[in-house]
Recover the amino acids of this structure.
């Protein structure tokens, strides 16, 4: 499964929306229900799905989905940790 598809699946689970389609230019305001609680759930979901850990406000500091995807691509290609699938 490609990074985009994996990330989209995490978003769909966190926001309970099977029709959610991510675009690189999307920001938090573009996604219904993205509040502070959803942000925390999203952060943990991404960490679990991709086997990474965010430091500080890394997720909050990203401008859009495209920047998040680039961050994940960089981290998952350089980290030796195995990628793990998110469990429901």
């Amino acid at each position: 499964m490609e990074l985009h598809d994996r990330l989209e699946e995490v978003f769909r689970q966190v926001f309970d929306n099977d029709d959610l389609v991510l675009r690189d230019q999307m920001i938090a305001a573009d996604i219904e229900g993205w509040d502070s609680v959803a942000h925390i759930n999203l952060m943990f979901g991404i960490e679990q799905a991709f086997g990474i850990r965010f430091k500080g406000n890394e997720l909050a500091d990203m401008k859009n989905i495209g920047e998040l995807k680039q961050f994940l691509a960089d981290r998952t290609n350089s980290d030796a940790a195995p990628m793990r699938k998110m469990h429901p």
About this structure: Residues 79-88 have pLDDT under 50 and may be disordered.
